[in-house]
Amino acid sequence: MDETGFAVGTTQSTRIIVDSTQKSSWKITPGKQEWITAIECVDAAGGALPPMVIFKAQNTNLGWIPEGTPPNWRFSTSNSGWTSNSHGFKWLRTVFKPESRVKSRDKPRLLIIDGHASHITANMIALCMENNIDLLILPPHCSHLLQPLNVGVFGPMKKYHAYETDRLLRAGINRFQRFEWVTLYQLIRMKALSAENIQSGWRGAGLVPFSERRVLSQLPVPLQLRPTTPQQLTPNLDLDLSVLKSSPLDGTELRAANLVFNSALASCEPPATPTRRYATRVTRLLERQNAELVVLRKEVQEHKAILQRRNTHKKGKRVKLQGEFVFSTADVLKIAREAEEKLVAKRPRGRPRKRPIEELEEEEEEELVLSSSADLDSEGSVIVILLLGSITFQGNCGVEANPDTRPGANVRERTRLHSGCKFLHSPTTPDRVTYSLRPDNESEDLEELRDWVLPVANEFIADADQHFKRPDSEPQVNIEYVAYGYDDGNWTSVTVPHDWAITGDFVGSSEVAGDMGSLPVRGVGWYRQKLSFTKDDSEKSICLDVEGAMAFSMVWLNGHLVGRWPNGYVTFRLDLTPYVKFGEENYLAIRAGIYRDVWVIKVPKTHVAHYGTHITTRDVSAKSATVDLSITIDNKDSKHTQPVKVLTKVYKYKDGRPLESRILPNTSITIKNPSIWGPPPTQEPNMYIAITELYDLEDRLLDEYETTFGIRTLKFDANNGLFVNGEHIYIQGVNQHHDLGALGVAWNLLAGTRQLEMLKELGVNAIRLSHNPPTPELLRLTDELGFTVIDEIFDCWLEGKSASDFHLIFEDWHEPDIRSFVRRDRNHPSIITWSVGNEVYEQVHDPPAAAKIFSELRDIVLEEDGTRPVTSSLFRATANDSMTGEMDIISLNYQGEGMRYGEAYTHLTGNRSLPQYDNFHAANPDSLIIGSEVAWSLSSRGSFDFPVSPYISAPVNDTNGGGNSSTYEINAYEVYSSESGSTPDRVFYTQDTKPFVAGGSYSGIIDLTGLKKERFYLYQSRWRSDFPAAHIVPHWNWPERVGQVTPDHVFTSGDEAELFVNGRSQGRQKKEPLAYRFRWDDVIYEPGEVKVVVYKDDKQWSTDAVVTMGEAAALRLSADRTTITGDGEDLTFITAEVVDSKGNVVPTANNAIQFDVSSPGVTVATDNGFPGDLTKFPSTKRNALNGLALAILRSEPGKAGRIKVSATGDLKGAEIVVTAKTERGN
What we know:
Elements: E1 2-10, E2 32-40, E3 52-56, E4 74-78, H1 85-104, E5 109-114, H2 122-130, E6 133-138, H3 143-146, H4 148-170, H5 178-192, H6 195-204, H7 212-216, H8 251-266, H9 273-310, E7 318-321, E8 324-327, H10 330-346, H11 356-363, E9 382-386, E10 389-393, E11 413-417, E12 421-426, E13 433-434, E14 447-448, H12 450-453, E15 492-494, E16 524-532, E17 540-546, E18 549-557, E19 560-563, E20 572-575, E21 585-594, E22 598-604, E23 606-618, E24 624-635, E25 642-652, E26 663-664, E27 668-672, E28 688-695, E29 701-709, E30 714-717, E31 721-724, E32 727-729, E33 733-736, H13 749-762, E34 766-769, H14 776-785, E35 788-792, H15 810-825, E36 831-838, H16 842-845, H17 847-864, E37 870-874, H18 882-886, E38 889-893, H19 894-897, H20 917-923, E39 928-933, E40 954-956, E41 963-964, E42 969-970, E43 976-978, H21 984-987, H22 1014-1023, E44 1030-1033, E45 1048-1052, E46 1056-1061, E47 1064-1070, E48 1078-1080, E49 1089-1096, E50 1099-1107, E51 1114-1119, E52 1123-1125, E53 1131-1139, E54 1152-1157, E55 1161-1167, E56 1181-1183, E57 1188-1195, E58 1201-1209, ...
Parallel strand pairs: 3-4, 5-6, 13-14, 33-34, 34-35, 35-36, 36-37, 37-38, 38-39, 40-43, 52-59
Antiparallel strand pairs: 1-2, 2-3, 7-8, 9-25, 10-24, 11-22, 12-15, 12-16, 16-21, 17-20, 17-22, 18-19, 18-21, 23-24, 24-27, 25-28, 26-27, 28-29, 30-31, 31-32, 41-42, 44-45, 45-48, 46-47, 46-49, 49-50, 51-53, 53-57, 54-56, 54-58, 55-57, 58-59
Helix pairs in contact: 2-9, 4-5, 4-6, 8-9, 13-14, 15-17
């Protein structure tokens, strides 16, 4: 492999007069030229791999690639048009590795390359080692003799190129377009890379056939000594390990010594065979570790070079002045002046100077890091001179010592878009635009907007060479919805967050699958909102923060495409400033489903950047903790540099008083007697808040930025589990998706809080956020409530799970998605682990490929946050899979595929093995294992069927029992699991011939309404061992079962229990260590009372009883909150119970209930938790399910008063009053 460059230029219109008698040819030389590089690779058989072409540009333009260009050619860009470390590595990964693998049929390959820095890097060597590629690195300055491309190919290629360009220049072609050059290169490449030229190069280099004389004869120095052939291996008696003369060890020398050693060992009578195997293994390990050491040394050299380039400022003096730490600015100002002078000197004459600092940034690609190094006793600050762009520095974290109140400067405005939105939904694609053509829309006449979208990701792409440049022109689309002043009077008024599907009718066919909820989710949604900005706002940066918009969102302002972010779960920011009309009305249009909050942000031109703080803690103890702070500051002012002072104050969260602390070197502060964050009940989730303030040199406050964080330690022990702050914490966790039941996916703080509070009651201390990033507000709640969290992104990688999911854009967006995701969430103490995938198909179909993708994703995560491990949840995995060995923590779904085993499942297909934890631990003894999806029991709340399986677990479907295919309910004895899914259409196969049923899930510990299933008490009894509770299943209303066996099961935290039926003991039992219930499976039903008395440590612990109820007689209402805020968002959840004449809930009642609400109240939704109920959620009429139903209520926005809620039907009605108050309490 080698590269060659071509100078391609432009000329002015030219006339040349020559003597007609002159025989010599004339030639036009272009005045202005740019460089284009081509990387080529040839093999000894006369073949060639596809080239990589590198243009001088920031982004590759599809217009440069003419039709007919071979599809396997690669194109890239760089600022100079030359190759670089990055290009060399990407050529190896995307060209040589896959293309040569096909040619070699997976045999070892030899790659001959020059020893330039642009070729040999640590990651390149590592990739070769991983893929059976041997590197032959040529000596310096020998390419013209030893490189076949230089010897036989590049000469003819340059000749053909010169001839063709000269011919075109003579014909009057003054400027080569890049697509013309690519066409030209295809022609000359076809001529130059002939098999004859390639084989001639290999012969001329003396490589194939091998002939050292071909090269040595060309050297200017006569050959004194002929090269010798390798000697025979040293006999055993002559073995002398003093041959290892180099330090550090030379790899070739080490290999030779090991061969001698193993040969000598083989010639001995003893030692025994195991010893020989051990010696062979040790020598191989030594060689591998030596190779890895070489790679690490190379990486260290590269990193040192990067750090050297970054150290662009001089060390200057630091002095104490009036209690402030002042960073010397003289050197920084000097650098700025020198840069300005340099730009002036370089500037072409007659060219107007625009945005000089941008040009400076292009030259100085490395990030400037300023760090403080002082130890002070009082308030400190750092003075920084900001140019255009951003700067990350280890700035001083100053702490005030006086008991002042928290600052409240209103310099950063954050306005939530909530009311006043207009909405339009179309089941088709009326706007004729798409991010990119894909399988589900490629047949439609749509305009791609990918080139306008990708530049939004640049902030989250580490390699500046890979940044995208937005086209200079607007996209050629005509969308009336985005036009300035478009009349949206006929659109629906909505509030955001908004779920357009949840209020619709259920789709009564297979048009929408059960896993999509059988709701009308298809189509395109448009939102419009009018915005106003004053003329004073023109001095600020105006941004839009979108916390979640599903999916392929697109944002327009005043008819201009601002940008979009395809992943609907990732929070993103767009800069509206260039498109704002200050002092006028502005029209915002968003194409997507806005199901999370949207904010308009106004900040000064100089401000703390988006996700601009990163806080970590170390040296944590009860006496003290060290807090490290990194800050990134943006300056959006293209005309001025901005000196700023940076000051950060730390407070106890919700306390309002600053802490006293000393300022330590490297942006650190020490907090004495810290309040540690940890999971309840044994620890408290204490939080801190850091307030970073920017001041100008006249002490005017420019910006204020708040960061909440917690102080805690994490330890992951492969043999003992998780330790938080030194305490062993047993993970008691659930998988939590982002929906809110009958409210859909539109985020609501009260509903989200209600869910987490129920999980706390259950005993949960850990949540896996399945399988995508949550709303930011949820993580604030997990911090405050003390949950430990697995924060997860991506449900697929390159292999999709549906035709149009994330796999289509994974290549473009995996890096920006991950960096944005981690930067947003990394300051949350509740997060203990990052997860970058869930059951990805690569893991099953190509484990080595999956391991490499995971490794890349993990490295991106660790670049952003190196304080937490990274995992990805496995399925159908084996303990020795490549991907398994790559993970920091092994996350196993389905117990490593040890599931559904035992006699009850013997007649079913699929995996029937025992749990695989021991196998995984034996193969990976240094890795901690987490059960990420372990239990999968299905049930319907309050539904019981007979007979009951005697097994611990049994399958449910149409033919195996456990469910009722006429009512689509599953037995709540909590012993049943599904063979293939958890929605009605997957559990009850007979639905193929029956009306389609809504696709809610039977899994879950709490049903869709938030009401507790029987399983709730099962988990609570295990996870809250100190909570004295007992719960009997089933209920005791079985008139048709008199005299029949009706098992009674009890969930309790006690260790011994006795059951009584109408006062007669059914026996006293002791709980086995791993049992999770008491079972009396021979109880004969008779009406009356069933009572259980539970003991613990030989003392009565708790009791429970169920009785035979009377007929349904009345309704009863209760509210979880009888006072709400009258803001239109605060909610109360009203539970309706069907009771008998004695006030007991009738567990078999399914009566219809009509809910009515007086003003200023509004019924948002009703539900009963049954997945098969086709009544749409906004309906005010709902049937009870086994005695219970739910209504969700809010107030009208801005209104206060008494809200009367009534429930009526064929029973005696009920009423309850809820009071709505304004935010001021009026």
